[in-house]
Amino acid sequence: MIGHREQWSSRLAFVLAAAGSAVGLGNIWRFSYVTGTNGGAAFVLIYLVAIVMIGYPLVVTEITIGRKTQRNPVGAFLSLAPGTPWWLIGAMGVSAGFVILSFYSIVAGWALAYIFKAVAGFAPDMDFAGTFMGHIGSVWPPIFWHALFMLLTLGIIVAGVIKGIQRWVRILMPALFGILLILVLRSLTLDGAGAGVAFYLSPRFDEVTAQTFLAAIGQAFFTLSLGMGAMITYGSYLSEKHTIPDNAGWVVGLDTLIAVIAGFAIFPAVFALGFDPAAGPGLAFITLPAVFAAMPGGSLFGVLFFLLLGVAALTSAISLLEVVVAWLVDEKQWSRPKASLLMGAAIFVIGIPCTLGYSLLSHVRFFGMDILDTYDFLASNLLLPLGGLLTAFFAGHVWSARELCREANRPAGNIRIGRWFGVMIKYIAPAAIALVMVTGLFQKFSGQ
Are 307 and 116 in contact (CB under 8 A)? Predict the structure, then answer.
């Protein structure tokens, strides 16, 4: 038997924690550059549809599984389907959390390092691409920032659900909103910002391709921390008195809102100062520092932006580590400090090859990918979508959509799920996830 299990003290605590898990680098960094390269508002509209049809049903499903079983991802499936191999879905979630955090911590470390680069100041004549490549191509600085970020994450998880996660999300999430709003106000008041707003809000359907739909579905899936066991784990700390469909709506709504608001912080500034809004993955660490260098008061706003990235990364990282720790505490009866420290150290060590993938191990390639991209591909293109697909199939066909809806609707709230939800979780969500997964694998290995 599992001993006393901590529970969120309030609905607000759960919503902030779950939304914090969903809000990460993908909302602020990835969402903006994907929007910029996929038709602006046309992409946003498709993304919102994907959130409603795929993201929301899966969030409800994972939270319901967690609350029903009061267990970690592995234990949850063992409880619902004892004596069957369905527990492997939970094992994939734990594995995904382990792998993702090992490289996510490195990218978050880059954000921490850039806070101090912004303090030092960005000069208009700087070689921003060279500065970034010089940082990630060095040996010890990326390891240092990787270690610092992991220590911050560990410090929160060791303290537990109430004294650690809940206490800190109540600080970090309002701070994230506050910083984001300051950046939006500054961006919108720049001369020429209107062109950026027009670019962002104007749907360019002529730029929409099949890839746009796949990108929207993928963004909806990955931004909500689905398939990695985070929502199952956080749901396991949820009291039966809280309504799941309503809370899931708040979580999905906050995650989406932050992504959309981030666009108003980035596009007006990029346009006002004459930069490319479709700069791609280099937008955060190469294009935006150049924007800040050309902006009055840019050093201050550069600090705020990279602090925003760091906070968003931290709220996601604590949920990733909590998935792994909860598994060891529940199933192996480890103490929380022991599980946190040993897994945190293991994740740090496993991540070191990624930090060296641009320096001492830059010659190492797997299917043409460097080490960090290989870790990312393993988690994002295999473990996460497969875990999400199987979770939807299990909930809809093995546990049954009817039982899922009955459990989720207890107690009744403002939102009540029924037959429409069953159709989405049984057919639409698995088909969409399978499409994204298969297409992504085909494009990766066919060179397209």
Answer: no
Residue 374 belongs to what domain range? 11-446
The 8-class DSSP code of residue 303 comes to H
- How many distinct structural domains can be found in the chain? 1
Neighbouring C-beta atoms of residue 446, cutoff 10 Å:
7
Place of tokens 């970690």: 72
pTM for this model (two decimals): 0.94
> Residue 7 pLDDT more than 70?
yes
Measured CA to CA in angstroms, residue 172 lies from 13, 32, 120, 314, 321 at distances of 12, 22, 25, 9, 17
The CATH number of residue 90's host domain is: 1.10.4160.10
CB 376 within 8 A of CB 217: no
Confidence of residue 284 (pLDDT cuts 50, 70, 90): confident
Give a yes or no: residue 49 inside a domain: yes
Whether the pLDDT of residue 3 is over 60: the answer is no
Of 385, 437, 413, 431, the closest CA to residue 53 belongs to 431
How far apart, in whole angstroms, are the C-alpha atoms of residue 413 and residue 428?
24
Positive or negative, the CA dihedral 117, 119, 120, 126 is positive
Taking CA atoms, 164 is separated from 8, 12, 291, 438, in Å, by: 11, 15, 36, 39
Helical residues (DSSP H) of 81-127, grouped into ranges: 87-120
Residue 1 lies in a domain: no
Interatomic CA distance for residues 281 and 270, integer angstroms: 14
Amino acid at 168: W
**Using N-to-C axis directions, what is the helix angle for 56-69 and 73-80, rounded to 10°?**
80
Q: What is the pLDDT of residues 23-68, one digit of tens each?
A: 988 888 788 888 888 888 999 999 999 999 999 999 999 999 999 9
Number of Cβ atoms within 10 Å of the Cβ of 134: 12
Instruction: For 71-84, write each residue's pLDDT tens digit.
Output: 999 999 999 999 99
Domain annotation covers residue 301:
yes
Tokens of 341: 């420290």
Asked whether residue 3 is domain-assigned, the answer is no
Helix (H, G, I), strand (E, B) or coil at 366: strand
Q: Which two tokens stand for residue 277?
A: 């809004």
